Give the backbone structure.
Amino acid sequence: MLSSPDLNTVLVPGHLRRVHHIALNVHDLQASRHFYGAILGLHELTGEEVPTTLRSLVAEGKVTNFVTPDGTVLDLFWEPELPPPDQDPQRAFTRANHLAFDINPQLFDHAVEVLKRNQVTIDHGPVTRPTGRGIYFYDPDGFLIEIRCDPEGT
């Protein structure tokens, strides 16, 4: 028989409310700004929108911040000495698998065309599964990104 956890020693469902932010190290900050802002269409935080804890780093050109439509902040930290991605992108990251963005099913095909027009490296897809459609591709530093949508009508 499993014993009940001591509530003083564990977090229970509901304690963690949401993802606060995601931080990525990037080699070329300008290429990453273009990728996440111009290609993926995320809003870049500027001025008073920048978290106060990061304003000095943003002013020094060491960090840039974007916000996803659901309010999650994406911090890009410039690491000029970051080694290039592995030649085999399947070995590029061992702990993180990918970052997924949801899109309206009616805009999915348009997103695929935008990636192709911008010559973004596609890992695989588009794929169709019972859970929806997805396409997997790489950001400028070789991090795997997915754009996915639920099946139409759900």
About this structure: The chain has two domains: 1-82, 84-154. The CA atoms of residues 26 and 150 lie 30 Å apart.
